[in-house]
């Protein structure tokens, strides 16, 4: 890869880097370095996607700091990206920052129409004890994934506690 960088054959270097990332797709460090390389090569669209991929892998692995750093970079390249906003909401959910989950999802109304967006919003409402708001969403969330009874269970628990 360095050989191609020195010869200014960025397409070839990117191709090799993609293959390296593909060998270990859960490696946050490789993904981060690939995103940085895309950024240095002036490939802003690819850099935005690579940073978002890095954030997603970091979230799965429980590395909130790496996810947050990658999301900031991704948002810098593509501030309108619904994926970036959804990942921000997931990160806020991991941190149990329910107000931030609502804020992020409110900032992009289209996300509320997605199953994952509704699920995150319902979790935020239940955790914040917002019974009326949760009541409006629980049926939609359950309908989107009828095999998962956890939304109904958490809503029922909240109702019973009240």
Keyword list:
about 160 residues; about 80% helix; about 0% strand
Mind explaining what this structure looks like?
The protein is mainly alpha-helical and 162 residues long. It has ten helices and no strands. The protein has helices spanning 2-6, 10-23, 28-40, 44-61, 64-77, 82-94, 98-107, 115-127, 131-144, 150-161. α5 packs antiparallel against α6 (82-94). The longest helix has 18 residues, at 44-61. It is elongated, with a radius of gyration of 19 Å. The mean pLDDT is 89.
Beta-strand percent range: under 5%
Radius of gyration: 19 Å
Helix content class: over 70%
Instruction: Give the number of DSSP strands.
Output: 0
Q: Report the span from N to C terminus.
A: 61 Å
**H/E series:** HHHHHHHHHH
What is the 3D form?
Answer: elongated
Précis, in short:
This protein has 10 helices and no strands. With 162 residues, it is an all-alpha fold. The protein is elongated and about 60 Å long.
